[in-house]
Write a sequence for this structure.
């Protein structure tokens, strides 16, 4: 099965895990599947599933599908101001 | 950039005069300015400072969307929205929103709209610093809600 490479950049509470993560997933993986991989790599961090994944243009829905390599950010709940 | 909207994420100290100078207009008789500052307490804990973390590209994009929504709701306003990225001491300015309009009601209402939406939708995070070097990232609004999930 073909795979794509995902780079995840960390923000906020995820900074405790470093700058980010790189891993591969099968082509056509959903955002939900990508988040499951992130959660697994972060020792089951519960914050992952309440966070959003985004590219530099938009926030992605959990049902969105990735068919190409992607640079993404994981965005925990926000509290600016 | 829209000539009546200015948005910015800054690692330099925010300047209140810059906000006023941007929104002041000969046809506008009202300027409302919201300034967010770092306070020295939170839920019974003594706070010594704050670090802000920002996804700058997406934050500026959400700022622009929020300001454009405000202009649709309150016709003719000018809006300035700037947020700090980095570490601040107590009293440091984290956010400035300025809105000008012909009359005061629109400025008050639009400025309130902008700060409330910023807090819910913009990818910005706060880490409070306490005594003895302890720090904590604050909880907030999930951005999954922003895309209807």
């Amino acid at each position: 099965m073909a795979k794509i490479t995902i780079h995840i950049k960390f923000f906020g509470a995820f900074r405790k895990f470093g700058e980010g993560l790189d891993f591969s997933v099968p082509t056509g993986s959903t955002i939900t599947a990508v988040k499951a991989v992130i959660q697994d790599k972060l020792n089951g961090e519960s914050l992952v599933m309440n966070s959003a994944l985004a590219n530099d243009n938009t926030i992605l829905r959990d049902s969105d599908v990735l068919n190409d390599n992607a640079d993404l950010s994981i965005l925990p709940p926000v509290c600016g101001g | 950039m829209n000539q009546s909207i200015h948005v910015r994420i800054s690692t330099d100290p925010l300047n209140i005069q810059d906000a006023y100078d941007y929104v002041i207009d000969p046809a506008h008789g009202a300027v409302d300015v919201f300034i967010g500052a770092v306070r020295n307490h939170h839920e019974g804990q003594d706070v010594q400072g704050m670090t802000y973390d920002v996804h700058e590209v997406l934050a500026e994009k959400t700022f622009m969307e929020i300001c454009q929504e405000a202009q649709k709701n309150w016709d003719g306003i000018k809006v300035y929205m700037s947020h700090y990225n980095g570490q601040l001491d107590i009293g440091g300015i984290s956010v400035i929103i300025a809105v000008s309009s012909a009359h005061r009601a629109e400025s008050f209402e639009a400025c309130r709209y902008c700060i409330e939406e910023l807090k819910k939708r913009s990818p910005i995070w706060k880490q409070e610093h306490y005594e003895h070097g302890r720090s904590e990232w604050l909880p907030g609004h999930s951005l999954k809600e922003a895309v209807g999930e």
About this structure: The mean pLDDT of chain B is 96. Chain B has three helices and ten strands. Residues 50 and 128 of chain B are 5 Å apart (CA to CA).
